[in-house]
Amino acid sequence: MPMPAPPKRACSRYSATGTLCTTPTARADGWCGVCDGYTVRAPREETERRQRWHWGPGPWHPAPLGLETDEAYEIEIHPHVVRDYSSHHTVPPKTAVVQIRSLLEDLITSGAPTEADVRGRRRIYLPQGGYGLMLSQDRGTVVRYCTRHAERTWAQYRGGVHSRISTPNRGTAWQRAALAEHLPVKVTATALHGYTRHVLGTKITRGNIDDIARRLAAHLNEYVLPKWDRTADVTLADGQGSTWVLAVDDRSPEGVVVANYATGVRTEE
Ligand SMILES: [Zn+2]
């Protein structure tokens, strides 16, 4: 009897500009694999998520892993690893399990370095890629997930998805400083660049950043923020020719200005 095709559901991930994807997908992790695949609309603060590259004390010395690729689908995954992965990448536990197994399989297939510590625990990791897993001494359980990446999963990284946290999304330090000084909400570099290009018709330099930040603050305060009660993510037309993507989450209750699009529609009263 032929296997029934897995049911499709709408992809629920976001593009780099914060647009919700709805492409049908049958993938177990719920990602269509075509869009950027971000699990949250706007990136979180870097400091909260960066650096989970903790392997324990070591030292580590080269040692075979002793696992075949198909064993990636039989091995136990410790519940704290599932929790850790889930919260780091903002995915449900079931998705976390699928992705951890897929990472392990890819690491084994790619011949990633494997090492053992004095207790016989193994680690397999991509030193350049910044993803790795630690296995128990008997190699029957995944006991740790390590990543250098603040928001991208291995599947996204492998697919060439760029981080929104590094440039250009966060902008340079001097851009962030100017924004922080003048604006009551967080503004991504995508939104800053969109506003500067679409509304002001210019480019950002060190010389004009203060002026741009001041004008952006005035624009948001007059046309955008009063229309938004900050209870939900919205896409909002400002009546001045721009549409704005605005987001709130637990970490940014004051809101994040995610993106600016030129729509050319003016509804000047
Ligand atoms: Zn998608």
Automatic annotation (TrEMBL):
It comes from the Bacteria. This is Integrase. It comes from Streptomyces flavochromogenes.
